Amino acid sequence: MPERTPETHVIDYRAAEQLLAARDPRGAVKLLDSVIAAHPENTAARLLRARAFFLAAQLRPAELEFQIVLEREPDNAFAHFALARTLQRAGRPEEALRHFRLAAALDPQPEYLEAARFGKAAG
């Protein structure tokens, strides 16, 4: 296998974005694994891999990746929202509601606000 370089990691990251857009989350995860192994601090790659895990219905790995992103970027509204969706899908609505509300507080987008209220109404 050829030596991995920063350039090949960028190419792998961009290819993973394309695979995710084409609904191939498992292919995206495979590409991102090498990127993250070489650059574990790369939050963008971790966020993309978390999204890929979520779309592949691998909820526990998705949750762990979103948590790593939030440890580094606690004000990342999208990561809170995506973690909330992951927790919701895993049948943990109380934990999900907390992250929906954090997402809405950080970035009052209509989708985030609706999700925060939805959890409250379903209470």
UniProtKB/TrEMBL annotation:
InterPro entries: TPR-like_helical_dom_sf (IPR011990), TPR_2 (IPR013105), TPR_rpt (IPR019734). Keywords: Repeat, TPR repeat. The keyword Repeat applies. Gene3D superfamilies: Tetratricopeptide repeat domain. PROSITE patterns: TPR. The keyword Repeat applies. It holds the Pfam family TPR_19. TPR repeats lie at residues 77-110. This is Tetratricopeptide repeat protein. It comes from Actinacidiphila oryziradicis. The lineage of its organism: Bacteria, Bacillati, Actinomycetota, Actinomycetes, Kitasatosporales.
